[in-house]
Amino acid sequence: MFRFYGETELYVWELTNWHSSVQYGYYRDLLANLRRIAPPETHPRLLDYGAGIGTAARIMAKHGYRVTIADVPGKSLDFAKFRLQREGLRIETLPLTLTTPPSFGTFDLIVCFDVLEHVPRVEDVVSALNRSLRTGGYAAIVATFYDPVGQHPHHLAENIRKFGDNRVWGMFLEGHGLKVVHPHIYCKTNPIESMARRFRYRLWERTGYMLRSPVVKLNALERQRDE
């Protein structure tokens, strides 16, 4: 799998076709919503994890964000850098490997489109991304954990088994302290609220019991403390 993404030129052409399609308009709209929620004046540092050919990075850089792209070294990453440099866009690059735990730095925004269904140890990747997102930052995450008729052989079977139920995936992200503010856009909550969300997820994961509102209770305690 690593060699496929790093070495084949066919993947570049596939992504070029996909990003030029009408269907990709959803992702462009999602980036527009992200800019509305978190403009570059308040959230300037953006990580595009699994940047592919750099389409999302290009869009956001043109709107004034300081963008870092992260992907495996190879044809698609080279093409992304070529596209962005040709337009005079200043982008930093983080090559990724499958043998070294990811470490990204600190960012105000993270974009991750159609990547997590492809990566092994998705839990480790999400944890690393979450650590790299500052409190009050936003993550735009789209992941498709299914392959009903075998058309997506690189959607890893272990990820589909664990996260094929969208409810499980949503709870998993909540367990990292991420709160939905718009479809596929999440805000990283403060440490107390994040702790409550992690507890809620662990309880649900182990017992199936859904604790309804620990976050609301903790927020009320915070307000009382501040008063």
Global geometry? globular
Low-confidence stretches: 213-227
Number of strands: 7
The CATH class is identified as: Alpha Beta
Structural Rg: 18 Å
Share in β-strands: 15-25%
The structural domain count equals 1
How are the strands of the biggest sheet laid out side by side? 3-2-1-4-5-7-6
What is the CATH architecture term?
3-Layer(aba) Sandwich
Distance between the termini: 55 Å
CATH topology: Rossmann fold
H-E string: HHHEHEHEEHEHHEEHH
Number of helices: 10
The structure class reads alpha/beta
- CATH H-tier superfamily: Vaccinia Virus protein VP39
Q: What portion of residues is helical?
A: 40-55%
Instruction: Specify the biggest β-sheet.
Output: 7 strands, mixed
Protein described:
It is a single chain. The protein has 227 residues and is α/β, with parallel strands linked by helices. It has a single domain (2-189), classed as 3-Layer(aba) Sandwich (Rossmann fold). It has ten helices and seven strands. The chain has a seven-stranded mixed β-sheet. A hairpin with a 2-residue loop joins strand 6 and strand 7 (185-188). Helix 9 (191-207) runs antiparallel to helix 10 (214-226). The radius of gyration is 18 Å and the shape is globular. Mean pLDDT is 84; it is low at 213-227.
In short:
This protein has 227 residues and is of the alpha/beta class. The protein has helices at residues 2-7, 10-19, 25-37, 55-62, 75-86, 122-132, 157-163, 166-174, 191-207, 214-226; strands at 45-49, 66-71, 91-95, 107-113, 133-142, 178-182, 185-188. The longest helix is centred in the last third of the chain and has 17 residues, at 191-207.
